[in-house]
Design a protein that fits this description.
The chain is mainly alpha-helical and about 110 residues long. About 45% of the residues lie in helices and about 0% in strands. It contains four helices and no strands. It is elongated. The termini are far apart.
Length: about 110
Amino acid sequence: MTTVALPPAEPTTGPTPSKKRGRGGSTLWRYLVIRFLLIFPTVFILVTMVFVLMRITGDPITIALGGKLPPDQLAERIHQAGYDSRRSADGGKVRFRRLSTLPRSR
C-alpha cells in the first residue's frame, strides 16, 4: 500500500463576517412594507379580472339557469333582475336595489 502526501492545509480564520445590519428589526419592517405595497397591484388585477370575466360571460341568470328553464321563463327572470337593458333611459347609471326586491329562486 502506498501513501500519498497531502499539501499542508491553510489555517482557517473562522466564518467570514456577514454584512452588518443597521438595526435588528429593519429587515422585518422592509418585508412588511413591501407586502403592504403589493396589496394595491393585487387588488387591481383581481378587480380587473372579475370585470372582464363578467363582461365576457354575460348575465349570471343565463349562466346559472340557461339550460334548465324554457326561453320565455329565462327572459322573464332576466327582465325581473334588470339585465335585459344595458343602457337605460337614465344614461346607463348604476341603479341600486334593495335585496328584498330581487326575485328569489324557488
